Amino acid sequence: MRHERQERSSAFNPSVHRRDEGRTIHVTVPLDGIAEEQIRFDLEKTTLTLSVTRDSEVTKKTLRVPGGTRFFKKKIHDGILEIILEKPAP
């Protein structure tokens, strides 16, 4: 009989950094060892949700953003995910 471990002592919990630069918001997340296919993000109304699937577990982080914000660009470099959002014109 196979016994599955439910241990979560090494839970994945990345820190999310947000930098407001006037017309854009830069969100950076260190994701060393995470493949791009394991990362998903959704922007809905005033919430940016980042989901990372790792070892059959999904970790989600959410950030509030101004209404009308839209996705502009995403890049991953040296284990750092950067999402650039564009705020609505004033």
From TrEMBL:
CDD domains cross-referenced by the UniProt entry: ACD_sHsps_p23-like (cd00298)
Biological source species: Methanoregula formicica (strain DSM 22288 / NBRC 105244 / SMSP)
Domain of life assignment: Archaea
InterPro entries (alphabetical): HSP20-like_chaperone
Region of interest (Disordered), ranges: 1-23
Protein name: Molecular chaperone (Small heat shock protein)
